[in-house]
Specification:
The protein is an alpha/beta fold and 302 residues long. It folds into two domains: 215 residues, P-loop containing nucleotide triphosphate hydrolases (Rossmann fold), CATH 3.40.50.300; 78 residues. It has nine helices and 14 strands. Strands 6-7-8-3-9-10 form a six-stranded mixed sheet, sandwiched between helices. Helix 5 links the parallel strand 7 and strand 8. Helix 2 packs across helix 3 and helix 2 packs parallel to helix 4. The protein starts with a strand and ends with a helix.
Length: 302
Amino acid sequence: MSNLFIEVKDVVKQYDGHVALNHVDLNVPEGCIYGLLGPNGAGKTSLIRIINMITRQDSGEVLMNGRPMKLDDIAHIGYLPEERGLYKKMKVGEQIVYLARLKGMGKLDARNTMREWLARFDLTEWENKKVEALSKGMAQKVQFIATVIHRPRLLIFDEPFSGFDPVNAEQLKMEILRLRDEGATILFSTHNMESVEAVCEQISLINHSQVVLQGYVDAIKQQHKQNIIAVELQGNKAIAANEALYSLLPPPAVGKATHIQLKTGVDVRDAIAWLNDHYALAGFHEVLPSMHEIFIETVKTA
């Protein structure tokens, strides 16, 4: 997965004097689910529109497979925008086939693939019903199908889980992972940090038009850790503070473990050895910050 599929190099975009993207760089490996994060107005949508060739950058370049993108590359992109849009008076099957053919699929291939996808999402009985009869969740599934049906090499999802209940969100997550496993490269924009942790391997966080955090999700969590250890004891005995080794943190909302924060310079092995001498330990593990916590911290301090 070392080959870069999408490269954004020193991209600048302005609208009426407002800088939407300020010298942004992005490297998306082939076959990767890459998270594009940031608060509202940070520049994410501007970047997505440039990659999708809806608008052009003022300077810089976007490469696909090592060469500048051209209009023909649009056929290899599937774009699911945050603002959904289907023709409400068209039948579901006709709608999907129509959009698939716009992306270059043959009629028979489009129809067969459409039916495979409808079956996967339990929507077969809706093929000949109008889009306006669909619930919001079903309509979003139909739009997802229309986005991926032509087997694009690059998929751009903008808030794909918005409006889904947990069961359908889980189904959509599994389909996204399957598409990744089948070779698609996925650019994933969302405010939902739980979904970032569930599916994204790498991320870029954009704030005030600039990239302020970038890298592998696991590495970023390690970089932002605060030396917090969750300790579980046998029985109900409470852990006392130890000014030399650690301080006690407020109890977590979930679970029975006690959270301690190691003092500066203290090795976790020394703290656990001391605890093991004084208490009956049932277990312990390092507590890493969530992507939600890292997002908030980074945006506040950037």
